[in-house]
Amino acid sequence: MYKFLMIFSILVFCTVCAQETSVCERQEKCKDCIGQPGCVWCAKPNDNPNSHCKLESQVNVATWCPKNKLTNPTRVFNKELDEDLNSGKYSDAVQIKPQRVKLRTRRGEETKIQFQYAKAANYPIDLYYIMDLSASMRVHKNKLAKLGGQLQKVMRAITNNFRLGFGSFVDKPLMPFTSTAPRRITAPCPDCARTYSFKNHLPLTDDYRQFSMQVKSANVSGNMDAPEGGFDAIMQAIVCKNEIGWRDNARHIIVYSTDAEYHVAGDGKLAGVVEPNDATCHLQSGEYVKGGELDYPSVSHLNQIAKENNINVIFAVVDKGDYVYNIYRTLQENFENSGVGKLDGSSSNVVDLVLDNYNKIVDAVRISDNARSSVEIKYNSSCKYPTENGCSNLQLDEVVNFTATIKPLECFERSWNFHKILIKPEGINEVLIVEMEVVCSCDCEKPSSQDYVTNSSKCSSSGHEVCGICDCREGYFGSTCECNVKTASTTDNTDCKKDPDLPEICSALGSCKCGKCVCDERPGDQLIYGKFCECDNFSCIRGNGQPCSGPDHGKCACGKCECLAGWKGEACSCRDTIATCVDPRGKGEICSGNGQCKCGECQCNIDEKKYSGRYCEECATCPGRWCETHQSCVECQAYSTGLDKAECLSNCKDFNTTLVETIDTRTNDEGVKVCTVIDSVGCTITFKYSYVDRQMVSVEALKLKVDCPIPTDPLVVILSVIGSILLGGLILLAIWKVVTHIHDGREYARFLTEAG
């Protein structure tokens, strides 16, 4: 068995080597040769003058090719800027190391770049508070004015370089969003200012007293419909960098406070506004002046602009029930680097809300880049809690080691082979700049090279000798350009056979002219190519009805798919990402920590816990799924139904159930679970329980049952029974009467017969 495995392994290895060797040997030009990983080019080989491209690992380069005739670009990597990480306590914070590198590499060659990230303890913070100043927010505005000093104090505990700004919004001053009646334009409601889209009351400053004064002096306004125009405000606050005062080297936070939903792109059409939002600053004297001309931005547009400008958004939603809060929670899930929280009835918890969401944002890091699809970059890290391209639950000054594996997938025209890739932690302005050159041409192809001879006699004066081979002028071909396309003919087809022992010429996909294969033409973009017409760009494995699943997934090269960045598999149909395996409502863990991400989908662990679900978040036997197990105890303790009193006291000793008026069913706390079940009398009951280390801590049950069956009225039952008895008696009496009448008739008839 052992010998068999050894022989099998050797055969597989030899097959792979043979395939790689074949890829190199069919390359006919130097630039094509070095575009294949591991291939090297020799302008004047010592052994076979017609074999210029070989696999480096399968040839003795020193004996095969003179050193000055060899083209084998080597990887060059240098660190250009490499400052140490700095927490920012005594000088400017540095959170990523190194800051700039240079890389020279070949197509298909992987380079691992090591870099580090550490969350600085004293990183500058710019916090801009945008408030909905419609009339319903009056009490919240007054509370915020009083809490400015406390907010400053709390944030100063995080960093001594903190600045605060204030802006407000209402809605577009157009019907049907606001009233345009003459008396309503200047005073839409009692003691209200005129309606406006957005005002920048206070640019970022370190004077919290100015913040409190501006909030206090800002007057509320009014509008007509329920949604507000807050998206206009967020867009202007992001793009008006100078007017707001955003600093380059600071974390940018926008706190968006409201009690209503929002208008989105397309809503402006209701007022005749059809021009899309242009993401450009339009502030004059601190007020947005294009609200009546430009539509609201869309969610995706706003998210993209926020990401480009390193903006983190915290949605602070006034608690008026779950409807509005759930809208912003859904928005937060589709808005990168954001948070959401509930403000209480007077916004007295605004400081805690801001601090809590700020910590959630900065305690995680996600690495992104601006690389084109022709460059594949994959990230790995050393952190304890890995997420997609990042980490969560980071501590101050905790150093995380990242590895970026960079592989260029394509060669383009010369200017496109220079890449400036920005690798950065999302939400901050610090970057690792990778200046990468992809070597896609050979020095011997330059006219100044000694291996470039114009109108060479070796090429029958019908072409140039380039890198040891003839580059024939149009209309000529052959190894020495000796053939004319119009007059060429040949009787010797040996050079057109991939295998001399086989009769097949040009892979049966072309014709042999002057010892060279001329491949058949195909319709459209389909192409047959190669030294022996052995390659094509259409016979690869298909996905989505197209070779290699289409040009946005990969390309077909000589019968094999070469996938673009983000895709993998034989048909490039498999997502090369873990993003689709991370629950957006979870902790950022891959497959909830209960499975593996394969081809962009979770494959859950199969053990005694039996995980399931899209993100392996479901578990029938885990403590988080004990609804049915605890239903009977909750029911008897809270509603005195189900188990009798003795059984309840005997079997339900682990916890006590408390009746409450309301239960928040949308909890994201892993230690809290909400159950909705049918009780023993047919009613729907809801209860919530929390547990720590598989031990029940508390149980709350909703006081009101729902969907209960209608109880039966006893009087109705009694009367129904009596009525049924009477009805049955009457029916029996009628039957008896009919039977006796028939019987008497028969007897009387017989009497008459006997008497006669």
Secondary-structure map:
Layout: H1 2-25, H2 30-34, E1 39-42, E2 53-55, H3 61-64, E3 70-71, E4 76-81, E5 96-97, E6 100-106, E7 111-118, E8 125-132, H4 138-156, E9 162-169, H5 182-185, E10 198-205, H6 208-217, H7 230-239, H8 241-244, E11 251-258, E12 283-284, E13 287-288, H9 299-308, E14 311-318, H10 322-333, E15 338-343, H11 350-362, E16 365-369, E17 375-381, E18 386-387, E19 390-391, E20 399-408, E21 418-425, E22 432-439, E23 452-453, E24 463-466, E25 469-472, E26 476-477, E27 483-484, E28 510-513, E29 516-519, E30 528-529, E31 535-536, E32 542-543, E33 546-547, E34 554-557, E35 560-563, E36 567-568, E37 574-575, E38 595-598, E39 601-604, E40 611-612, E41 618-619, H12 627-639, H13 645-651, E42 657-660, E43 672-678, E44 684-692, E45 695-702, H14 714-755
Parallel strand pairs: 6-22, 8-9, 8-11, 11-14, 14-15, 42-45
Antiparallel strand pairs: 1-2, 1-3, 4-6, 5-7, 7-20, 9-10, 12-13, 16-19, 16-21, 17-20, 18-19, 21-22, 23-24, 24-25, 26-27, 28-29, 30-31, 32-33, 34-35, 36-37, 38-39, 40-41, 43-44, 44-45
